[in-house]
């Protein structure tokens, strides 16, 4: 099986009281995996430490329990994979491989800006999976900033057009849970 989660997390250990900007009912609905059956997209947007990866891993593990194939990659790794395949002349094969899992989780989009060619490669992946397999993306950037992330507003618009067509966008606000824990234990003011 694919996956490769960075850590093990479940929805049951997610403290919704600590994250009032989240609608728990909406997250529970996502945990039914109906959106995956439909090939829809989910975006978790918000600052670092607000639980985006925790939620992505939890939903990914739920999907596996429901017998969906799931692959988890960081955006940086994904772009490196696509760039290497492109330079090796195996891009088409790599796009086919990356289109097989019913759910592809792309974590940490926006921490590093894309190079121009990377945006085109990413666009090809999104197009290939469009309306066939689900994509879940976590990002510390709002959708309005994706033009800068991709380094090309035209390609960013084309990517967003496909991603947002059948999508749930969840914007998380608030402070980092990591820092909150530190503050509580007196390590930070
Ligand atoms: P992000 O991906 O948004 O930067 P993470 O999901 O990695 O944040 O969360 C950072 C750490 O804090 C993880 O260990 C995660 O399990 C934990 N965490 C974040 N938010 C919550 C929450 N609301 N309840 C329980 N644990 C949380
Ligand atoms: Mg994260």
Identify the notable features of this structure and list them briefly:
binds adenosine-5'-diphosphate; 15% strand; Rossmann fold; globular; 47% helix
Can you describe this structure?
The chain has helices at 24-31, 34-37, 52-65, 75-88, 91-98, 116-129, 146-150, 153-165, 177-184, and strands spanning 41-45, 70-74, 103-109, 134-139, 167-171. The protein has 189 residues and is α/β, with parallel strands linked by helices. It has a single domain (23-184), classed as Rossmann fold (3-Layer(aba) Sandwich). The protein has a 5-stranded parallel β-sheet. The longest helix has 14 residues, at 52-65. The protein is globular. Bound molecules: adenosine-5'-diphosphate and magnesium ion.
Distance between the termini: 44 Å
Question: SS-based structural class?
Answer: alpha/beta
Number of domains: 1
CATH architecture: 3-Layer(aba) Sandwich
Poorly predicted runs: none
Mean pLDDT: 94
N-to-C SSE string, H for helix and E for strand: HHEHEHHEHEHHEH
The helix fraction, in percent, is: 40-55%
Small-molecule binders here are: adenosine-5'-diphosphate, magnesium ion
- The counted number of beta strands is 5
Q: What quaternary form is this?
A: single chain
